[in-house]
Amino acid sequence: MQVVKKEHVQVMRNQAQYERHIHQLKNEVAEMKKTKVRLINKMKEDNQRHLQAEQRRNREIAQLKKQSRLKENQIRTLEAEKRKKDTVLKRKQEELMALRKSAKPMSDRVAGRVPQSNTFIINRRQPFSPKIAKSRWQNLEKSINQLVISKQSINNIERDMERYLKERDRLTRKLEHLMKKRNEAAVEKKSAEIVQDFDDNIETLRANIDYCQENIKECQSSIVQMEEAKV
């Protein structure tokens, strides 16, 4: 009987010890779960902060690119205005040079001071005037020089316009190809960075096309002005 009691007590002790061990293990598992949750939450927070930082950096880069494109457009506009002013100044200088040349002393033959000869017959009703002949010749020479200068200027502007037209066509084809690629990337749900890169390149191409178009309009306007001045 005593042996049975001792065995029963021992079993009860073992059972209590086992239950304590089970309880301890459950507590450890619960703590591990809490630790896991904390780690997962921390990872989510870190990922969120990283994503926000990446988005902020991308916005800053996009803003810098936009500002850079605006500056480039301003520079191109100023360069176009400078070229237009240079063209006008060059034309004025050429006209001035032509006027200076026409004002130089002329030879006796050009001025109308033709030596008298037996075969020269003077119209008594309209006496020959060297001064009038010289003036008429100078006016004719001036008109011819102006026409030549104007024609040369128009040819130069037409060459520039042809170059801008070809460049505009090339950029337009490139823009169409890039827009197609951008749409494909959007349909395939590519990353936002890839789509944004397409958008930036498209915006740059459009700015370059606008720049070419502005120069084409300036060339057309200059040609019209020169043609009207010839009339």
TrEMBL record:
Biological process (GO), any one: microtubule-based movement
Pfam family, one: KIF21A
Positions in coiled-coil regions: 15-95, 147-188
KIF21A/B second helical domain mapped to chain residues: 127-230
Any one Gene Ontology cellular component term annotated for this protein: microtubule associated complex
Annotated keywords: Coiled coil, Cytoplasm, Microtubule
Any GO MF annotation of the entry: microtubule motor activity
InterPro entries the UniProt entry points to: KIF21A/B_hel_2, Kinesin-like_fam
The protein's name: Kinesin-like protein KIF21A
Organism: Stegodyphus mimosarum
Organism lineage string: Eukaryota, Metazoa, Ecdysozoa, Arthropoda, Chelicerata
